[in-house]
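Q: I'm writing up a methods section and want to include an example of the input and output format. Could you take the sequence below and give the corresponding predicted structure tokens, formatted cleanly so I can copy it straight into the document?
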Amino acid sequence: MSILTALDWRYAVRRFAEERIDEQQLEELLTATRMSASAYGLQPYRLIVVASAEVRRQLLPYGMGQEKVAQCSHLVVLAAQTEVGEQTVASYVAQFARVRDVPVADLQRMSDHLNTALAVKTPAQRLAWAHQQAYLALGTLLTSAALMGIDSCPMTGIEADGFDRVLGLTELGLTTSVACALGRRHPDDANARLKKVRLDHQTMVRVI
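A: Here is the clean output for your methods example:
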């Protein structure tokens, strides 16, 4: 499937079938999402995969009436780190050193630059920035799912505090950014047969 065909095929599924996504496909999709672009490469968020039907039922009251929270095969919650700072940078620098086989001492300038970039932001601004990075990953998740023929529906209309409580995210230093339901569209979901409505090229794109 070409990328344009895949993106035209994708839509926000309203009703999911009972079929579950193959675990190997799910793992590949999560890997693609993990490889998403992220400012400075810091990835200040985590992917919480809610495979348990029971836990998804507990989340349902906080899904603003969206039954797909419970219906879908898997629910992925992208959760931002609530404390982004020197420890975030230190962890990244240590991983950078391991992956590229360079001494941590040689990365001091990079470490200083990252810490300075974060230090000029207030805690609220750093959290907002972390949420932005999670949304970058959401774009990768949705596009990759479409290319793999996996249906999805991103959900921002949820009660993040409720999701945080059910999933125990606060204790992990995380807070919900957005949730994404994954699975297979139900054959009775009429929205699958509707034409996609998007701004045309002339309206959307301006070349300067």
